[in-house]
Design brief:
D-Maltodextrin-Binding Protein, domain 2, single chain, 462 residues, ABC transporter substrate-binding protein, two-stranded parallel sheet, alpha+beta, 2 domains
Length: 462
């Protein structure tokens, strides 16, 4: 069976530049002049979830600065967090913030359904558009049109609990590891009698498919490809079968938790309680959660790239990110002022000061600041160097291994109906892990055919 073709977003080496000050013509700037507007314009911005008090405080400070500078603009907050199964009804009932956060995977569907504003004209007038990270810009740039302001990006990584490896006398695998070395490590560190899992998977909800696709990418596979003028499902492939076999092997080797039915937070909590040796998630998200909420020690954690299928292969995982989009219901004034709120402090000394304040706020709370592996700025810019200078000053900042950054590889989330794809894959995973299917190949083909019929065939003409 031929392996489907796919396009990789090459991140290898690109991220290593975050560790050093860059040398480009991009300089830290002062805010550009916002649009003229009358008194009494109201905009609503999305605030962080309640369990992220430092981020909430940081945004509230931004709002205060904005209100002081533009007293005629009323900035309100909305704490709804983007959810693929809720956005439709939110849009239909106009219960959406003027600007709201979304994921990289949602770009095409939001664009197709006109659930966000086209901001090409605003971006064309903004002096810093050319300084944005081109990798992060890709998911929301279609035919030269812009529809989102990027915030930050992630690459799927695997976080290891070094303490559990040490207690079992198991050496850490090489950073340039393979699937075989990943599975061997999981088997050796697993201790079912003590309730210690070698690997903590996400197997419930769309996050199950999200995790699985990173292994699929590492095997050289894809969810869908463009062919014959349409979108063709590529799940049923050699890479897909290899990925499914890896999950079956983990179940048979008893490296998963006894109750392996876990969603995103279930898996994070299990790992943070010291009951799992390895877990997959975006960039440093596990470190952030495990240290700042699970009270684990940062020195007991280490971040690895996705294991490659074979030695010397690419360590490819899902690449995604967070973006800000503007509601299609925004008036002309709201649209321009929301864009101004989102962009005014980007690339400025004010944003650098805000970063340092957040790090110090975390220090006062006894928390660790975990930087993103990808940010809205170009990693080789002067601004990136200034950010790195701030990070280097503080001891409560997590340090990624430079060798990790040289190995990381990323491929965009499925560009077409990613959440529907993840949901379909989740059903396959659950059937295989519960032994509800005696023929994993037939089950994978069924899922591939369903995606084609129910999802990709419906995209014609859109």
């Amino acid at each position: 069976m031929s392996r489907p073709k796919h396009t990789l977003v090459r991140i290898c080496g690109f991220l290593a530049l975050l560790l050093a000050a860059g040398c480009s013509s991009f300089a830290v700037s002062t805010p550009s002049e916002p649009p003229a507007a009358g008194e009494g314009v109201n905009i609503t911005v999305q605030i962080a979830p309640f369990d992220k008090p430092v981020e909430i405080t940081s945004l509230q400070k931004r709002i205060t600065r904005f209100r002081e500078k533009y007293p005629g603009i009323n900035v309100h907050t909305d704490n709804w967090q983007y959810a693929p199964d809720q956005i439709g009804i939110r849009i239909a009932t106009n219960q959406i913030a003027t600007e709201y956060n979304t994921y990289a995977s949602e770009g095409r569907i939001l664009l197709q359904r006109k659930w966000m504003s086209d901001i090409t004209d605003l971006m064309s007038r903004w002096p810093h558009t050319g300084e944005l990270n081109p990798v992060l810009m890709k998911p929301f740039t279609v035919n030269g049109q812009y529809s989102a302001v990027p915030e930050q990006g992630y690459l799927m990584t695997v976080t290891l609990n070094k303490k559990l490896f040490r207690e079992k006398g198991v050496p850490l695998p090489p950073l340039d590891w393979t699937w075989d070395e990943f599975l061997e490590a999981a088997v050796r560190v697993s201790d079912p009698e003590r309730g210690i899992a070698g690997y903590v998977p996400m197997t419930k909800g769309n996050e199950a498919g999200w995790n699985w696709v990173s292994f699929l990418y590492a095997a050289g596979g894809d969810v869908a490809v463009e062919a014959d003028g349409g979108i063709r499902s590529a799940l049923y492939s050699e890479a897909g079968l290899q990925t499914l076999e890896l999950y079956r092997a983990m179940k048979e080797a008893r490296v998963l938790p006894t109750n392996w039915v876990m969603g995103y937070l279930d898996a994070f909590n299990h790992f943070s309680l010291g009951r799992g040796a390895m877990i997959m998630a975006g960039s440093g998200d596990v470190v952030d959660y495990a240290v700042n909420q699970g009270r684990m020690k940062a020195e007991e954690l280490v971040v690895y790239p996705m294991p490659s299928l074979a030695k010397g292969g690419r360590h490819t995982g899902v690449f995604g990110g967070n973006y800000h989009v503007i509601s299609p219901y925004a008036t002309s004034g709201q649209r321009e002022w929301a864009f101004s709120f989102l962009t005014e402090e980007m690339f400025t000394e004010t944003s650098l000061q805000a970063l340092e304040e957040e790090i110090l706020d975390r220090k006062r709370l006894g928390q660790l600041y975990v930087p993103r592996l990808m940010n809205y700025w170009r990693p080789d810019s002067v601004y990136a160097g200034k950010v790195q200078g701030i990070l280097d000053k503080h001891e409560n900042v997590y340090r990624f291994d430079p060798a990790l950054l040289r190995l990381l590889d990323g491929k965009e989330e499925p560009l077409y109906e990613a959440q529907a794809c993840y949901a379909e894959i989740a059903g396959v995973i659950q059937d295989v892990l519960t032994s509800k299917t005696e023929d994993p190949e037939a089950r994978l083909k069924l899922a591939s055919d369903r995606l084609q019929e129910r999802v990709f065939d419906q995209l014609k003409g859109k």
